[in-house]
Amino acid sequence: MNLLKPLARLLSRPVLAVVLVLATLSGCTTNEATGRSQFLALSWEEEVRLGAEAAPQFIEQSGGQLPDQQVLAYVRDLGGRLAAESEMPDIEWEFHVLDSQVINAFALPGGKVFMSRGLMERMTNEAQLAGVLGHEIGHVTARHGNERMGKALIAQGVILAVGIGGAVSDEEWLQVLGVGTAVGGQLFLLKYSRENELEADALGVRYMTRAGYNPVGQVQVMEILGEASGGSSTPEWLSTHPASDTRISRLEELIINDYPGYQTDGVYVFREAEFKQNILAPLSQLPPAKHGRGAFLGPSEFEQLTGIKWEQAQHKNCACHPKKR
Question: Are 127 and 214 in contact (CB under 8 A)?
Answer without folding.
Answer: yes
